[in-house]
Write a structure and sequence with these properties.
Two copies of one chain form a homodimer. The first copy, chain A, is built from three helices and 57 strands. With 622 residues, chain A is mainly beta. In chain A, strand 13 and strand 14 form a beta hairpin. Chains A, B: Keywords: Glycosidase, Hydrolase, Repeat, Signal. Chains A, B: One of its GO terms (molecular function) is polygalacturonase activity.
Chain lengths: 622, 622
């Protein structure tokens, strides 16, 4: 006879706090709640849509997916996933989640906070972590130089299994294989110096046997990088063996052996490995994040889409315990936001992608379906389901291989999402005949003003700040120590369909501390587009009163830029790392005009100051 | 400059047929429509919810997913998937889809007809097929006996790639690896005789290296067969090589080499390979299927859930062209249906699973959440999202290891689906204290009366008819030629959580033509439960006036049965196939009582007529 284990204790909890509209839900740290807070919190959230907030007695709360609310979510730059939620903040107004210093530990594929269609939502005083990470880490403990193999020790917190030469790390409700890898320096708690020499580990190779595959025809354009189609033509090249319990030998490595004592981070296949971001905000006005720490997420720390007025103060993205890695993708990421994005006094470190990325989204014209109606297509599989704007927004039409400036603008009347790739937009005006298949559209209304001030960006893979907005932006008094460029102004049109040509940007008073240490030959600040044309993408960029500590030469790379001022900056030579590219100049200009360099204090190593192409004109270098 | 290719022709089509409520949408076979009918049909369906039907000018229409309506669907006994739809029949009343003899060719992951929440819907005069099948077929052309390998030739319609020793068949928007296999006899166009000797091909083996995996703990019960967890502990054992273009050598085969000239069918991994059933009906009353042919589906042909009164006449499930395989799972399947299921004059052949399966669903008690409230859990990952009933239904509570008969019954007040595995049911009455964690619940109200008459069931993998309903059922004048048992009455509680103990069944006037030729030692008619107990599962079963053509001995296996009559049947000896189990008796009885055999004409081979255990009592064998 089985045991009676009915949860009457929960019943007591459930009935103990009947909340009235306008009041704040109080959560006590009873064992019944802290051991799995999901069902209690979920019930409270769903039953009290009029509440003004939820407050937790300070403590550690676990959240399991088993009794969480299922929601399917299209998430930009993530895998579109089903997640089980404890906090489905959908349609809330003036609502505050206050952890009062609590720690929330999540288990498996959950999104800690999912905020949709809301107004004036705050999250504060809470720390987010996962019991088991979505990535894994191991220490390089030996080289076997004759056979060019190396040994990695994985600790008890990273259980694994080897299947047919690949390694699979087993988590709660999740697993990942080797996939994307990078090397961390344990002492510096940052990506290893010149890491590009050692990683990533090549996991796949061309498959050699195919038969008749060119007979698979598609009527419409397909995305060859989509999760099914990308597999065609490749196979695994991994050959891993366990040489002692917890110690795995990596054969067949194409690059230099990673230094002994460094840490290998692995997170599984690109496209499959972003399944549980920390906080996701969508279609929400006035979102505040204050005194929040995110130790980990299986994806980005904070992802905001199609929202307005975002205020972030004292956010920490930083690993817990001995982990090298915090979040497995960008610390923060903003798509199609408007109004204001303000981030201050924050520390974003050690995550596996950029610190801040702010941009719009291009979509592609497929066909005209009426005088005012267009069929459009999402270009990238991680943009699936993304809706480009709302009624009244101004859509710009761009011929991306000719110019980044819209050749025409129309107003959205309505958008119908037919499927994850295909939508139909009805405009208020007639569609001009210049619009043809393959043109890009961008939402001119959906770009934000930006202030990033007094933040620290360090230790992560990839860039510091990526900015793509034509609105006013200020990057002031921040500290950067990034393995790639510190500030990158891109137009990532070709691969990522990320829109936004930046103008009116002030970069002032920042310290760039030996960035680009990962091994790429790039400027600390870099303005570069994906496209080959010479048209202007960036306009009115001022870089002044910054300090550049430089172990290498290249300070600034700018292309397709008009009105660039580089003034009163101090460039110092540093011996923090050995120099990598002594032949580089300090500044590279391409297809740019009206550039001024003045009153800079240059103490750098570069012997050649400036390199520019013949399409660059009117440079005043003092 | 890119080409202007706007679809003004479509505009004309779109505006040509404005339909009034109550009228029938007419679809003409213009090139703009037939080349991809999806956007046109979808628009018509969505804009004419009051229409009484849609009629197609006779022709061949292609349906692509690219512009189809995305819908996520939980599908019983399938992978839960996103599909793109042309026919989202949701909330329709008195609606008829009439192909007027047309053929609809689908491309990729679509469900041709998805019917939800509707009343009185008919589909008629239409043939469904896919351009590229979700399975693949190849002919065995050589044996290499020394190394125990065999060679398979795959035709041009099955493009493939070999990756790391496994074969991947590349389709439109889809691929599958070897996975589940079976052998067909090309001449007989059916599963090969004694196929169990040759297939399936073993694709996986135990992985040998694990480290620390027992440290991954779960707070709640988990389903080890779920798509993530099942991977732990296994790896591929395949070692396939192309020996000539289109010819692949299979090494490492554990069974006998499949005969030269037979056809290997492969469809990818179990759990992953059912993504596009032909017709799916859910929560609908009065559904009619008349003169419909389904040549193929990536899953079941027709799947009906939680619906009432289903009428099927002249349905054909049969492969097109040279294909051996029709649908890649059951021809027809009914879960939680009520009212009447009537299937007449139909041909169900060559699909990769049962012809007809009618059952309910068990779910498991997790915890009590209030006097009238239970948390319950779906047992099987392919039952995820299934809702067991609606307000007013009677739920029976079963202690499955003791008895199949409910020990108590309650009435549903409401059901809340929290996530795909966990739901909360509120009852009208208080929950009795006998209910404990681990008890099963079944919906007593959701069983149908059944009539299967004048149908032909042949050539498929697995069983003919599976019946699990306590309501009146008649199986009359059908022809069976199935490789496993022709009629199976199960209680598949342990693995599949399929409920329903059958009573009041008449099996009359059928011809059982040499069934069980696939190699299993089973009765042509078989009444067997998953559980080890001796309680009665089946009651009032009459088998009379049937003809059994028998190449082997075993006619009937019955366990846990009360009131079984086997009368006026003719058992003939056949030399259609060599005998497999000469030691078997003709009849096996276990844990049964009140069994009558009389007036049968036995001309079979069996030398031993009857085998029964000591818990079987009151058998009258004349």
């Amino acid at each position: 006879m089985k045991k009676l284990i009915f949860i009457f204790s929960l019943l007591v909890s459930f009935s103990g706090f009947c909340d009235k509209p306008g009041e704040v839900i109080q959560v006590k740290k009873t064992a019944a709640i802290t051991e799995d807070a999901t069902p209690y919190v979920l019930k409270k959230i769903l039953e009290n849509k009029e509440a003004k907030g939820i407050k937790f007695e300070k403590g550690t709360y676990h959240f399991y997916p088993d009794k969480g609310l299922t929601k399917f979510v299209y998430i930009s730059n993530h895998k579109d996933v089903f997640v089980n939620l404890a906090f489905p903040i959908d349609g809330f107004k003036d609502f505050t989640i206050d952890g009062q210093g609590s720690t929330f530990i999540f288990h498996g594929k959950m999104i800690p906070f999912l905020v949709d269609n809301s107004e004036n939502v705050s999250i504060k005083n809470v720390t987010i972590d996962w019991a088991m990470a979505f990535h894994s880490e191991g220490e390089i403990i030996a080289h076997n130089t004759e056979e060019h193999s190396f040994d990695v020790r994985f600790g008890d917190e990273y259980p694994y299994e080897i299947r047919n030469g690949d390694i699979y790390f087993i988590k709660e409700y999740y697993e990942h294989d080797l996939g994307q890898t990078i090397i961390y320096d344990k002492q510096r708690r940052a990506i290893a110096y010149n890491d590009k020499k050692f990683s990533p580990i090549a996991t796949s190779q061309k498959s050699t046997v195919q038969h008749g595959i060119d007979q698979v025809k598609y009527k419409y354009k397909v995305d060859k990088s989509d999760l099914t189609l990308r597999k065609v033509g490749t196979e695994s090249r991994l050959n891993l063996k366990q040489v002692a319990p917890g110690v795995v030998r990596f054969y067949n490595h194409k690059k230099q052996l990673p230094p002994i004592g460094t840490i290998l981070s692995t997170k599984g296949q690109q496209g499959e490995n972003r399944v549980a971001p920390g906080i996701r905000v969508n279609n929400t006005n006035n979102f505040h994040l204050t005194d929040v720490t995110i130790h980990h997420a299986g994806g980005m720390g904070l992802l905001v889409e199609n929202s307005e007025d975002i205020y972030i103060d004292r956010l920490k993205i930083t690993p817990s315990g001995d982990r090298m890695v915090s979040t497995t993708a960008d610390a923060t990421h903003f798509v199609g936001c408007r109004g204001f994005i303000k981030m201050t006094n924050s520390l974003l470190e050690n995550q596996l992608d950029d610190c801040v990325n702010i941009h719009g989204a291009y979509q592609e014209v497929v066909e005209q379906l009426g005088e005012k109606k267009l069929g459009i297509r999402m270009g990238h599989h991680q943009q699936e389901g993304y809706v480009i704007g709302k009624k009244g927004d101004t859509i710009g039409f761009v011929k991306i291989d000719e110019s980044f400036t819209p050749f025409d603008k129309l107003t959205i009347e309505s958008i119908e999402r037919v499927n994850q790739r295909y939508q139909v937009i009805t405009f208020k005006e007639k569609i001009p005949k210049e619009v043809v298949q393959g043109d890009y559209i961008e939402n001119i209304s959906a770009y934000p003003e930006v202030l990033l001030e007094n933040n620290k960006f360090q230790g992560n893979r990839a860039r510091g700040v990526l900015l793509s907005t034509p609105k006013k932006a200020i990057v002031r008094n921040n500290y950067f120590h990034s393995e790639m460029e510190a500030i990158f102004l891109p137009v990532e049109s070709s691969k990522w369909y990320e829109s936004g040509a930046t103008s009116n940007l002030l970069i002032e008073g920042n310290t760039f501390d030996n960035c680009n240490f990962g091994g790429t030959s790039r400027g600390i600040i870099r303005l570069v587009t994906d496209e080959d044309n010479e048209s202007i993408a960036f306009n009115d960029i001022t870089i002044r009163k910054n300090i550049f500590k430089m172990f290498d030469n290249l300070v600034l790379e700018a292309s397709n830029t008009d009105e660039l001022k580089f003034e009163e900056n101090t460039i110092l030579s540093s011996d923090r790392f050995p120099q990598l590219y002594p032949e580089n100049p300090a500044f590279i200009l391409r297809s740019s005009k009206n550039v001024t360099f003045k009153n800079n204090d240059f103490q750098g190593k570069a012997t050649k100051m400036m390199e520019s192409d013949k399409s660059t004109i009117n440079v005043d270098f003092q």
